[in-house]
Amino acid sequence: MDRTGAQAPRGTPPDAAGNELVHARQVRATGAVQGVGFRPFVHGLATALGLAGHVRNDSEGVDILVEGPLSSLELFLARLVDDAPPLALVERVVVMAAEPTGAADFTIVHSESGPRPNTLVTADAATCRDCSRELLDPRDRRHRYPFINCTNCGPRFTIITSVPYDRPHTTMAGFEMCPACRAEYDDPGDRRFHAQPNACSECGPRLSFRATGDPVPAAYGGDALAQAVAVLRDGGIVAVKGLGGYHLACDATNEASVQTLRRRKHRDERPFAVMAAGVDDVARYCVVTPADEALLASSRRPVVLLERLAPFLDASPHLAPTVAPDVTTYGLFLPYTPLHQLLLHDVGRPLVMTSGNVSDEPIAFRDDDAHSRLTPLADAFLGHDRPIHMRTDDSVARTFRGEHYLLRRARGWAPLPVTFSGADHGILAVGGHLKNTFALTRRDHAFVSHHIGDLENLETLRSLEQGVAHFQRLFALDPRVVTHDLHPDYLSTRFARSFAEERGLPTVAVQHHEAHIASVLADAGHSGPVVGVAFDGAGYGPDGTIWGGELFVGSPGNFERVAHLDRLAMPGGETAVREPWRLALSLLEHCGMAPEPGQETLPPHLQVLPGAAGILSRPWRLVLRALRSGVNAPPTSSAGRLFDAVSSLLGLRYEAGYEGQAAIALETAARRHYASAGLPEPDEAPGWIVHLAEPPVSPGTVTPSVLPIAPIGHAVVVDAVAGLPTPAIAARFHHALAWITAAAAERAATAHGLDTVALSGGVFQNMLLLELLATQLEYRGLRVLVHRKVPTNDGGLCLGQAETAAALLRSGRLAPGAPR
Ligand code: ZN
Ligand code: ZN
Ligand code: FE
Asked: What secondary structure letter does DSSP report for 154?
């Protein structure tokens, strides 16, 4: 936060009558200051200090004229920032001397629509303590009113249609306040003063319930809630309209219900998010550290991934088994709207709350669309008549070393900007293909969008296009440069090109993994140079191969690939991602251990491999032939694919229902080992690392060095043949990979005179690998940068693209397009 402005004249003496002379100050506050109770706060503060003047919202922020004795003015200015309301994010305060107007009191002036909105629209905030208390207080006039909110809480981003943030510019525009609500709204002393979504059961939105197939709702208000609760308690599935879209809800302790939901949703084995009434309910199933508790209960209220209690014991406390098959974590969150609070309270059990969609479609948020799309999935609908303007999914996070580590940045964070290195010209960064997000920038603010989704259908692409247009309007952003992934065929790349072409703007393609490292640098506020380790699923490389296990040296816009994991062929291309057994066979071939042509099976000593039977029961001869002829078997240096190969070699997963499932199985197996053995000491060499060559990585080397993977394949086989349990081998694999990576990063750092290593890419959602590698690097005296504000997966890509384009603009290597 900056505080700038003219120096105040000091030491003005009291006048002859002993009254202090009246001074005036013009104060401009910018940041997230609208819709967060900032004007009422200013009004209260000024009034308490006996100051006169006014405050108003305008398109640039909050404008204050305040006058009175100098001593009170100074107190006012000090407390303006220090005591700001919880949701306010005051970025800048400019104070100027002004002429006193002789005003008698302090007033709030109505908003003026300016031509250039420049304020930070705030994120949706979970129900605050005061509102929760009133919700459950039988004497309160909003007792059990499911849309209770105040200036400190409630819907924001999801209901704003335009700026400045005032009721007519929200989806509450159609609700006229009753006299009681209006009185609160107009009373500067009330905690609902100018709370834009303010409402009550007399005048505000109301619930409706209908059984699926009924043409009209069967019940409204409290009756609607009661009927939905009855369906849920009976094991039914209810589509519940929330803040940013519809959820599908069912009893998370009822296995039959959860199985039905999975079947109807065509959902693979990906874990479902579960909402629990409070932290105590979460702690019945999971380990909750103080950092986890703070994240769970924060006003952003993400789904938090938590380690289950005693996951490897048969008697571990658990929800219905198909809530989260084969993983050691649960994704849990707390109610974030009054409706959720009432539902959880009345049902009395944790509820699965998963996005209202079929498999990979975007979450439904418009009522008519929700009814048609969710009718085959839900037994009933619990809706309401407050429209959702912006589709927004739940955010997903976990904690790493006591701080939050975002895996999906959406509700609660969007659309707050992330500060990055910045450029004088605006940038549109369209992100990648999977877990798409985009960013639009102004100076050093990157407005990173909510999670858009996988760009695999037109509906999601439309979300991207509409999201960009909405952000442009909301924040008056006019990009002069467009940046996208190097992959020529991504839908995001095509969108970027047509967007740029229509406006005559230049485009910049940024290599996927360079964007990942630029992203973590922007996230950490580090300008480089650093050693960057990008361990990822896949990204298009400029040499035509698929990258994903990369070591770079340099800064955004100026990275040199100094090393990469050795390449593994992917027989069948993308099919190999869904069928990791192909990669296991490929790794055997890579190590020279696959059957010779004409051999009918694996050599006898390899038949004891845990994965042998699974591989041999699949069309392995065909795949081996493809591998040897090189037809449709593109090489990849992807770390994610190496995890897949080893997972399958160990018989953990032959097919993957969702991205990363085989890798997660390998991580889970390793955790099982470490749960009893404990994590290795930082100086403890892994069981089979000694014979892995450390690569030479020196400045000016033309060809990047190769981190061999054949020794890893060999070691897995040797251990398995020796009868080592699978969890121990999985643990050794994690340990060894961390070890060779840390060694390579250390050598690169030494050769280039660097002391910092930045980690990014989807593989670092594996918290075991992250912990082992970070510990290794720190043990070697290196500083480690990890993601915090944006995800390490492709959800963080847009920020890295923007950071790269900004560096190119600043250095003059990229010229901005002309303003329109
Ligand atoms: Zn509140
Ligand atoms: Zn009312
Ligand atoms: Fe990626």
From this structure: B
Q: What are the residues whose beta carbons fall under 8 Å from the beta carbon of 557, sequence distance 6 or more?
A: 518, 804, 807, 808, 811, 813
Q: How far apart are CA 459 and CA 365, in angstroms?
A: 13
Q: Do the Cβ atoms of 170 and 349 come closer than 8 Å?
A: no
Q: Which amino acid is at 253?
A: T
Helices marked H in 476-530 — which ranges? 491-503, 512-524
Q: How far is the CA of 160 from the centre of ligand 2 (A)?
A: 20
Which numbered ligand comes closest to the C-alpha of 490? 3
**Separation between Cα atoms, residue 807 and residue 427, nearest integer Å:** 11
Q: Could you read off the pLDDT of 702-752 as tens digits, one per residue?
A: 577 899 999 999 999 999 989 999 999 999 999 999 999 999 999 999 999
Q: Specify whether the CB–CB gap between 402 and 254 falls below 8 A.
A: no
CA angle 222, 225, 226 (to 5 degrees): 85
Rounded distance from Cα 547 to ligand 3 centre (Å):
9
Residue 18, pLDDT above cutoff 60: no
- How far is Cα 562 from Cα 701, in angstroms, rounded to an integer? 8
| Contacts of 368 by beta carbon, 8 Å cutoff, 6+ apart | none
- Cα three-residue angle 543-544-547, rounded to 5 degrees: 80
pTM over 0.85: yes
Q: What are the DSSP calls for 131-153, one per residue?
A: HHHHHT-TTSTTTT-TT--BTTB
How far is it between the farthest Cα atoms of the chain? 111
Residue with tokens 């992250």: 770
Would you tell me how many other CB atoms lie within 10 Å of the CB of residue 524? 18
Environment class of residue 107 by beta-carbon count within 10 Å: exposed (0-12), middle (13-18) or buried (19+)?
middle
Residue 45 Cα to ligand 1 midpoint, Å, equals 20
**According to the model, what pLDDT value does residue 113 have?**
53
**Alpha-carbon separation of residue 791 from 334, 396, 436 (angstroms):** 21, 9, 11
Instruction: Identify the H or E element spanning 566.
Output: none
Q: How far apart are CA 309 and CA 324, in angstroms?
A: 14
What are 574's strand-pairing partners?
Answer: none
CB-based contact 123:416 (threshold 8 Å): yes
User: Are the C-beta atoms of residues 54 and 111 closer than 8 Å to each other?
Assistant: no
How far apart, in whole angstroms, are the C-alpha atoms of residue 754 and residue 159?
47
What's the 201 CA to ligand 2 centre distance in angstroms?
6
Q: For residue 204, how far is its CA from the centre of ligand 2 (angstroms)? A: 6
- The three-point CA angle 533-689-596 to 5° equals 100
User: Side chain identity at 78, as an amino acid letter?
Assistant: A
Summarize the chain as % helix, strand, coil (round to 5): 35, 20, 45
Relative to the alpha carbon of 660, which ligand is closest? Answer: 3
48 alpha carbon – ligand 3 mean position (Å):
53
Closest CA to 45 of 3, 101, 84, 14: 84
538 contact partners, CB below 8 Å, separation of at least 6: 512, 546, 547, 548, 577, 636, 638, 640, 641
Ligand nearest to the CA of 195: 1
pLDDT at 686: 84
Tokens of 18: 């002993």
Cα 156 to ligand 2 centroid, rounded to whole Å: 19
Ligand at minimal distance from the CA of 145 is 2
**pLDDT tens digits, residue range 454-465?**
998 888 999 999
- Across 291-303, b (16+ Cβ under 10 Å) vs e yields bbeebbebbbbbb
Rounded to the nearest 10°, the torsion over CA 632, 635, 640, 643 is 90
Q: Which two tokens stand for residue 624?
A: 């081996």
Cβ neighbours of residue 604 closer than 8 Å, sequence gap 6 or more: none
User: What's the gap in Å between 204 CA and the centre of ligand 1?
Assistant: 16
Cα-based distances in Å from 369 to 157, 232, 357, 359, 611:
21, 23, 10, 16, 45
Q: How far apart, in whole angstroms, are the C-alpha atoms of residue 599 and residue 733?
A: 29
